[in-house]
Specification:
The structure holds 2 protein chains of 2 kinds.
Chain A: H1 5-22, H2 40-47, E1 61-68, E2 71-81, E3 84-93, E4 103-107, H3 118-129, E5 133-137, H4 155-163, H5 166-189, E6 198-203, H6 205-216, E7 223-226, E8 255-260, H7 268-279, E9 284-288, H8 298-311
Parallel strand pairs in A: 4-5, 4-6, 6-7, 7-8, 8-9
Antiparallel strand pairs in A: 1-2, 2-3, 3-5
Helix pairs in contact in A: 5-6
Chain B: H1 6-18, H2 39-48, E1 60-67, E2 70-77, E3 86-93, E4 101-106, H3 117-128, E5 131-136, H4 154-162, H5 165-190, E6 197-202, H6 204-215, E7 222-225, H7 244-247, E8 255-262, H8 268-278, E9 283-291, H9 297-310
Classes of the chains: A alpha/beta, B alpha/beta.
């Protein structure tokens, strides 16, 4: 008997949910870097692996342009590293020159749909209307870049094939960090953004990677981490070079967390609070009351927009 | 105006002029050639060269033939996810040998990859001496040529790969992984005991072999034939792609370096002797009067004898 993709995904999801319910936060795996990050020499050695060729032509392709509800959107792609193309959407307030306003690179959560689920589109448009341009990119293997690597893209598959597959995950992180930097280059070189006013925003899995990219790429003026943490509920290990704990302390620029005390994916006690401690007292922490993992309400979005505008002046 | 036929010739002449005697003193160097990175930095390199050993090989035995007392088997296998399959050839004695031994062989920088005449000859010689030898194509060469190079001229290889620090680092790390996977193939598919596998590299393959040999301590011994630090047209690389940072870590495993005093690709004084000064025992160094790539029967006899010495039958 062959289960349909939806049904097998549902079964896997229920199995994981049951496992999640049965296990307590105390049983979650951790690692030594969460309490004792690697030293600066090691961190500097990691940075070597995130270097990319900035001379590679972008080969920008514009698929469509539209304007609605005060927001101009471009659907486009550009070459990040030789042979790899990033798909993206750029959101800007109508009538606003991108170089006259702050801009952010946005990394989506771990859903296979990448940057385009309604929750992200709503956030991107909200930020654009608030005067923060957003370049939302599909991370490698996600969204329009789904090449079948993640199977059907279920929670279980993503963990088996990527997040808990340590060497593969490190490669993925490495590529994503390079693409975040290339996205910054793209905003400046291809769209005229002000290099002094570009931030990085990551959501859930995108927040995990943003902790790494935000440290590796020092040109970001501010870093906002939404619903992120150390391990998500089904993660059980990663390489030191792919551990956000080894990067957070090196961001040394304004940092903003939005987390939920009822997050059931990144558990507060084991995955969120230790990360906040590593970020240091200067990082701003905003606890949302919108709900559990991934929930954002208009207050949260407004707080994010205000923080970005205040720190990317 | 195009110069399709004369351009490669001109490039070759320029390359040749660049390598004329007297220019050795002008060759660039780097700090690691005298002061390799520390253990902590080196440990980070190992993270980035790790691979998923659980990934199925999906080994395809394309063609097998027997001639001259050897079985020659063309193969392809999956090395790492998302990379082109590795193409290679396994040479082994036609009659079973007691206490089998294995060689992973890395070719020089010629267009046909591991199937260049000199490389084939060396692999066959080692197989006739009783070794099971797997030679594989490095990424961008032979059966894995995906168009990075057009002419495979020295200047083109320097411009497009060797002097592209981030791309070259990716290439070096992939090659280390491919060596590891070739090792695994010998052990898991060809029955070679894991403690009886050595690594041999020629020219660019030797440059990679010092990196792979330093990174993968399962390799019982390493032979570097006509290799060195920078070739005549290289001018810089990342520390994680610098052979100097790895070759010092091959000891206490045996190392053979075979070089020519008249090598005009890897200059003895700037590219070879500084590496040799870093070495610790057990090391065997052989200098001949040869130019680059010119190996005599005696050289090959020395290689086979050294292999027999470090890994007795």
């Amino acid at each position: 008997m062959t289960l349909s993709r939806h049904r097998s995904g549902l079964v896997a999801g229920i199995t994981m949910l049951l496992a999640a319910t049965a296990a307590g936060a105390q049983d979650r795996p951790t690692d030594q870097w969460l309490t004792s990050p690697v030293d600066r020499t090691t961190f500097e050695a990691y940075k070597d692996f995130f270097v990319y060729d900035s001379e590679v032509p972008f080969q920008t392709r514009l698929f469509s342009e539209s304007s609605q509800q005060g927001v101009r959107e471009e659907h486009l792609s550009f070459q990040s590293t030789p042979g790899l193309t990033v798909t993206a959407r750029l959101y800007q307030a109508q009538g606003l020159e991108i170089g006259d306003a702050p801009a952010v690179v946005f990394l989506h959560g771990g859903g296979i749909q990448g940057k385009d689920p309604a929750i992200f589109v709503a956030l991107h448009r909200f930020l654009a209307r608030a005067g923060v341009s957003v370049l939302a990119i599909d991370m490698w293997r996600f969204g329009e870049r789904d090449d079948g690597f993640l199977g059907g893209g279920s929670e279980q598959e993503r963990h088996e094939l990527l997040y808990n597959n340590e060497s593969v995950y490190l490669e993925w992180v490495q590529q994503t960090v390079k693409e975040v930097s290339r996205s910054l280059d793209f905003l400046v070189e291809e769209r005229g953004a002000d290099p002094e006013r570009i931030g990085l925003v990551g959501f859930s899995r995108g927040a995990v990677v943003s902790m790494i990219a935000g440290a590796a790429e020092e040109r970001f003026g501010a870093v906002a981490l939404l619903h992120g943490g150390h391990f998500d509920f089904f993660e059980d290990g990663h390489r030191a070079a792919a551990c956000p704990a080894n990067y957070l302390g090196h961001i040394e620029r304004p940092m903003f967390f939005i987390n939920s005390e009822t997050d059931q994916d990144f558990l507060p006690e084991t995955a969120i609070l230790p990360v906040h401690r590593l970020a240091g007292p200067s990082a701003e922490v905003y606890w949302t009351t919108a709900g559990g993992h991934g929930a954002l309400n208009d207050d949260d979005r407004s707080a994010l927009a205000a923080w970005l505008k205040g720190n990317l002046r | 105006m195009t110069l399709p036929r004369s351009a490669p010739l001109a490039a070759a002449l320029v390359a040749l002029l660049n390598t004329l005697p007297g220019t050795a003193q002008d060759r660039p160097t780097d700090p690691w050639l005298t002061d390799p990175v520390d253990a902590a930095s080196f440990a980070t390199y190992l993270e980035f060269s790790s691979y998923d050993s659980e990934l199925p090989f999906d080994l395809v035995r394309i063609e097998s033939r027997e001639a001259g007392g050897l079985i020659e088997e063309e193969i392809r296998f999956v090395s790492t996810q998302g990379q082109p399959d590795v193409t290679g050839t396994v040479f082994r004695p036609a009659t079973a040998v007691d206490n089998p031994r294995g060689v992973v062989y890395i070719h020089g920088g010629n267009p046909v990859g591991h199937r260049a005449g000199g490389d084939l000859r060396r692999m066959q010689l080692m197989a006739r001496a009783g070794w099971t030898v797997v030679g594989f194509d490095m990424l961008h060469w032979g059966g894995r040529d995906e168009g990075l190079f057009e002419t495979f001229g020295a200047q083109e290889k320097a411009d497009r790969l060797y002097n592209q620090p981030s791309l070259y680092l990716e290439f070096a790390m992939q090659t280390v992984k491919d060596v590891g996977r070739s090792f695994d193939i010998l052990v898991e598919e060809y029955g070679i005991p894991a403690d009886r596998v050595v690594l041999v590299g020629f020219s660019r393959g030797a440059q990679m072999a010092m990196i792979a040999g330093g990174a993968d301590d399962r390799l019982a011994a390493v032979a570097l034939i006509h290799g060195g630090h920078f070739d005549a047209l290289e001018n810089g690389h990342r520390p994680a792609a610098c052979g100097a940072n790895y070759i010092v870590r091959i000891s206490p495993r045996p190392l053979l370096m075979m070089n020519g005093e008249n090598d005009r690709d890897y200059f003895p004084d700037t590219a070879v002797r500084p590496l040799q000064r870093l070495l610790r025992e057990p090391t065997q160094i052989r200098w001949t009067d040869a130019g680059h790539g010119a190996l005599t029967n005696e050289d090959h006899t020395v290689l086979i004898a050294w292999l027999d010495e470090v890994m007795p039958r």
